[in-house]
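Appendix B, record 7
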Amino acid sequence: MLVSVIIPTHKRHHSLLELITSIYRQDFPLDEVEIHIVSNLPDMALERKLKKSFSNYSNWHFWEVGRLGVNLARNFGIKKAQGDFLVFLDDDCFLDQRDYFQRALAQLKRWPEVSAVGGPYTLPANANTCEQVYNSICRQWLEASVRQSGFTTNLVGGNMVFRRKVFESGIRFNSDILFGGAETELNLRLIKMGHRLKFDQNLSVEHRLHLRLKGFFAKGFWQGFGAERRRQNGITVETGTAAVFDACPYPSKLMELLLVLYDHAFQMGQQWAERNEHRRPRAHEVTALFVFILKKEFTLNRYKEWLRLRPHF
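Structure tokens (predicted):
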């Protein structure tokens, strides 16, 4: 078996089915691919849909780990995978490049010293403004990490292809990280161990976020939370939060507001992790912070102050 695809999933049936369909449309021999779909919690409805949609294929496997956490699901997939190369995709992604597998494997064969290769996210044509701004932030963060040689310190979790041998020594994703830049800690840990990661600008995956304002805030919060946890653990080979403001160099007024909101959410995540070193916030606590920002803190004065500090807009 040459390629093992590992897809963590939690309550995203429609986009997951579309992703798997895009995998089966790859210009790549199906007898050299296996797919491991790893659900965090039991999901009989999803299992039924998979059996109905892909009954003609025998190279997919559905697993349940029983607990929340994208990294827990990734680690379970690693344990089950038989391939020489492990492809990590997320359940809100879609392979719009039919030569994705071929391109990724060609890069790894060309660069034998490279442990993993990845690329950016693209957006579907109907992406809303929240999705556009978040993707710009993500892309700027990725590209800021790339050296002139093409080596990088960061890859995104829904677009990574690793050599199997990376995990043969027992290296795993940190399962204490549930979500929010969950792969970043592993990537930075690998860099410190001497591994090399390669960024391919043309190896893209379409990211179907279906993101609204609350989810946009949550992503900023969890990214900030993860950054502070990495700092506490001495894993800090990354750019600062100010890079957020370079994501949209000529934004509209709405994009400006969303950048301010994201930066504020990021800072709140950092502060929460700093004050609570041994506890993660629960979902209702993050929701309460989001409501607090909208009702109390996210005022016109804060926006005007940001504009004053960012005169290049």
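Remarks on this record: The first strand starts at residue 3 and ends at 9. The chain is about 45% helix and 15% strand.
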